[in-house]
């Protein structure tokens, strides 16, 4: 299946999820994330802010703050994605695309070892992913390759194998709301 068809199919499945189901599945995924060594060891978390039917990240961010971790979220500045530190949800506004983002253009996150939660539409056990088509995370992870990365997804977003293109950057581990996939080592 080509990427456009895959995006349409997964998008339709995500739109069919009831808000309550998204909440339950997101809570399961959060608990799995909290048990990972990557989460336990990180001092900072770079987390996306969920949009539409994505896995909910606000409870994860709240827990990270409670666990004493710094949190940064993405904002597109001059065509490139940057992560900016936040210490409350009051610092957020809705972007022109309806996605929450920091109101300010700083302070820039500066923890090269922060755990990055990577969103996407489809994933495979080797960490390959199909994103939303902007390439923001791929470019960011090429600029800052030391970050450990984890993707959280619903079971129907996990495929046996996805084809990768030269510019695609795989994630280290994929956790589905069924059984988590084994983490890959950094190459």
Question: What topology emerges from the helices and strands here?
Answer:
Elements: H1 3-15, H2 19-34, H3 37-41, E1 44-46, H4 58-66, E2 70-77, E3 80-86, E4 92-94, E5 100-102, E6 115-117, E7 122-123, E8 129-130, H5 136-143, E9 149-153, E10 173-176
Parallel strand pairs: 1-2, 1-6, 6-9, 9-10
Antiparallel strand pairs: 2-3, 4-5, 7-8
Description:
The chain has 187 residues and is an alpha/beta fold. It has one domain: Rossmann fold, CATH 3.40.50.10420. 27% of the residues lie in helices and 21% in strands. The strands form three sheets. A six-stranded mixed sheet has the order 3-2-1-6-9-10, with helices on both faces. The chain has a two-stranded antiparallel sheet with strand order 4-5. The protein has a two-stranded antiparallel sheet with strand order 7-8. 36% of the residues are buried.
């Amino acid at each position: 299946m080509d990427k456009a068809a895959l995006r349409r199919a997964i998008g339709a499945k995500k739109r069919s999820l009831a808000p309550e189901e998204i909440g339950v599945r997101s809570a399961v995924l959060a608990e799995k994330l909290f048990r990972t060594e990557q989460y336990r060891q990180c001092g900072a978390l770079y987390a996306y802010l969920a949009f539409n039917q994505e896995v909910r990240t606000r409870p994860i961010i709240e827990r990270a703050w409670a666990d004493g971790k710094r949190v940064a979220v993405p904002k597109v500045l001059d065509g490139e994605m940057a992560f900016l530190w936040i210490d409350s949800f009051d610092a957020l506004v809705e972007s022109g695309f309806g996605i929450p983002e920091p109101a300010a253009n700083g302070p820039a996150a500066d923890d090269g070892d922060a755990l990055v939660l990577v969103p996407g539409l489809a994933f495979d056990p080797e960490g390959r992913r199909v994103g939303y088509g902007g390439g923001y995370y791929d470019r960011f992870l090429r600029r800052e390759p030391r970050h450990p990365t984890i993707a959280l997804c619903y079971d129907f977003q996990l495929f046996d194998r996805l084809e990768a293109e030269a510019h695609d950057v795989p994630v280290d581990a994929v956790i589905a709301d069924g059984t988590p996939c084994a983490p890959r080592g950094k190459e």
